[in-house]
């Protein structure tokens, strides 16, 4: 119990950053580990009515289990992690959005009469699609290049000029706020769809669309986790080496 008590004040995002397998434990309790990963175990247990000993026991079982094949993103150089996010998660979003929008439009036309909730789902996803497209461009054109510049300067032993946005904390704060907005949008979609459970009269397109939305949200959770809990805080630490904030 001594270890469990010590971890009460550990942010849940750190658990997931140390071992991504713990994400499944938090998800099973309905605990947001990505957008709200800064909260401690004690905070989330109090808010969600979860027994902390039970939660921490399950986390310990994961962390102490053998054969951990989880990817250790935390050990990656920041430029590699930024590239990975862009080439894996940004591309995933870009590929899935047009397909999902097409399917949702079709479902609204065919099934909207019997299932008016589809119009709200379509509205929420369309809003998410537009915001994510702009969000990712800001990361690719402003934030990620500066992170890569800091990594290169560190390797080369060179100094760098302060960025035009003042400090990396400024775009990071904006990105984290946008993450929270899209996380909230998908929480609403999950609620409306009863956690992506198709109705009894659902056709194959209906079932596929719900499955794709479920997959999209899971990918978004990992995407946001990698940024909020690993890339962003490590980038802020790296910046401290160049400038006294």
How is the topology of this model organized?
Elements: H1 2-6, H2 12-18, H3 22-28, H4 41-48, H5 52-64, H6 78-111, H7 117-156, H8 169-192, H9 204-240
Keywords: Cytoplasm, Iron, Metal-binding
Pfam family, one: Hemerythrin
Protein name: Iron-sulfur cluster repair di-iron protein
Explain this structure to me?
The protein is an all-alpha fold and 245 residues long. Helices cover 71% and strands 0% of the residues. It is globular and about 65 Å long. The protein starts with a helix and ends in a 5-residue tail after the last helix. The mean pLDDT is 91. Keywords: Cytoplasm, Iron, Metal-binding. Its main location: cytoplasm.
Q: What is the approximate shape?
A: globular
In oligomeric terms, what are we looking at?
Answer: single chain
The biggest beta sheet is recorded as: none
Structural class: mainly alpha
* Beta-strand content estimate: under 5%
- Tally of helical runs: 9
Number of strands: 0
The pLDDT mean sits at 91
Termini separation = 39 Å
Helix content: over 70%
């Amino acid at each position: 119990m001594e270890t469990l008590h010590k971890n009460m004040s550990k942010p849940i995002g750190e658990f997931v950053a140390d071992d991504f397998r713990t994400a499944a434990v938090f998800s099973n309790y309905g605990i947001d580990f990505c957008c709200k990963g800064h909260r401690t175990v004690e905070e989330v247990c109090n808010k969600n009515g979860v027994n902390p000993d039970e939660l921490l026991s399950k986390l310990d079982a994961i962390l102490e289990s053998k054969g951990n094949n989880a990817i250790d993103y935390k050990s990656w150089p920041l430029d590699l992690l930024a590239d990975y996010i862009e080439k894996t998660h940004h591309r995933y979003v870009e590929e899935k959005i047009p397909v999902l929008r097409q399917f949702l439009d079709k479902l609204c036309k065919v099934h909207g009469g019997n299932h008016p909730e589809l119009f709200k789902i379509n509205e929420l996803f369309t809003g998410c699609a537009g915001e994510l497209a702009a969000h990712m461009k800001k990361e690719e054109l402003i934030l990620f290049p500066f992170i890569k510049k800091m990594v290169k300067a560190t390797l080369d032993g060179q100094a760098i000029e302060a960025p035009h946005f003042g400090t990396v904390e400024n775009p990071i704060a904006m990105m984290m706020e946008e993450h929270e907005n899209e996380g909230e949008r998908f929480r609403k979609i999950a609620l409306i769809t009863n956690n992506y459970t198709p109705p009894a009269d659902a056709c194959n397109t209906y079932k596929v669309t719900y499955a794709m939305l479920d997959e999209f949200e899971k990918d978004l959770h990992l995407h946001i986790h990698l940024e909020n809990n690993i890339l962003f805080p490590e980038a802020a630490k790296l910046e401290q080496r160049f400038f006294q904030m």
